[in-house]
Write a structure and sequence with these properties.
alpha/beta; TIM Barrel; 44% helix; binds cytidine-5'-monophosphate
Length: 250
């Protein structure tokens, strides 16, 4: 069987610094990480900022090659978003999220700033991932904002815009993987939450998919939170999910 890179990014959804630090050390520390990456989002970043990231996810843990998804969902005027990107590139995130609805100029400013700042600091360029239509919005929510489109059509439209403006991929729901893979090509990153191991509790995820299904449809990365961090043994849970996704060298 072919070995694939570990696609599992663990969503560390907490404001508890000690808990986040322990969790990250247990799943990503040591010579062989159980995850492909760590996702820190608004909750953690607003509470602890850049110093919190450096504390909970320190260089020795990063050194194993584990990825870092900084899920900030930026959305503002181009100059401000570029400034936000500039402020976090030295944390060396592998991925940063940005709302595609911010428009072309904002997207291009973010792409340019990510490349320029990374070159200046001599670090890898963060990849930018677009947020298209939040899965919490349905057709009537879009209509209320003056967008008379079916959410799935709007996702495709915004993903195309993201790609045209130089973004590296998008966040998408399991149900959108196949259409986006067809529309956006083989290289486009598809980072997919809403993943549940076969036979596990879906929690509040209404349209969850298993790791294997999502990867087979074309997901490049899987965001998994509760099934890992609420498990009695988070490391074992992460490894089992990675194996389900086809990783066979853990
Ligand atoms: O615990 P669970 O595996 O459901 O966590 C999934 C992660 O992905 C959380 O960090 C959640 O915020 C994020 N996410 C999601 N659904 C979306 C977008 C993001 O579950 N549509």
């Amino acid at each position: 069987m072919r070995t694939r890179a570990n696609p599992v990014y663990c969503g560390v959804d907490t404001t508890d610094l000690a808990q986040a630090t322990r969790l990250i050390q247990s799943i990503a520390g040591g010579p062989s990480p159980a995850v492909g990456g760590i996702k820190l989002g608004l909750e953690f970043f607003l509470a602890h900022g850049a110093p919190g990231v450096r504390y909970a996810f320190p260089t020795p843990v990063r050194a194993t090659g584990v990825g870092f998804f900084l899920d900030l969902k930026l959305h503002d005027i181009p100059n401000t978003v570029a400034g936000g990107i500039r402020a976090v590139v030295d944390l060396e995130p592998t991925y940063i999220t940005i709302h595609v609805q911010g428009g072309r100029e904002m997207l291009r400013a973010a792409v340019a700033e990510a490349a320029e700042r990374a070159a200046r600091l001599g670090v890898a360029r963060p990849r930018l991932l677009g947020v298209t239509v939040l899965t919490s919005l349905d057709r009537s929510d879009l209509e209320a904002t003056g967008v008379p489109a079916d959410p799935s059509d709007q996702v495709l439209r915004l993903a195309g815009l993201a790609r045209d403006c130089g973004l590296d991929g998008v966040i998408c729901s399991p149900l959108e993987i196949a259409a986006l893979r067809r529309a956006c090509g083989a290289e486009f990153v598809l980072m997919v939450p809403g993943i549940r191991p076969a036979g596990s509790d879906a929690n509040d995820q209404k349209r969850a998919m298993t790791p294997r299904q999502a990867v087979d449809l074309g997901a490049t990365h899987l965001v998994v939170g509760r099934p890992i961090y609420k498990a009695d043994d988070p490391r074992a849970a992460a490894e089992a999910i990675a194996r389900e996704a086809g990783v066979n060298n853990l």
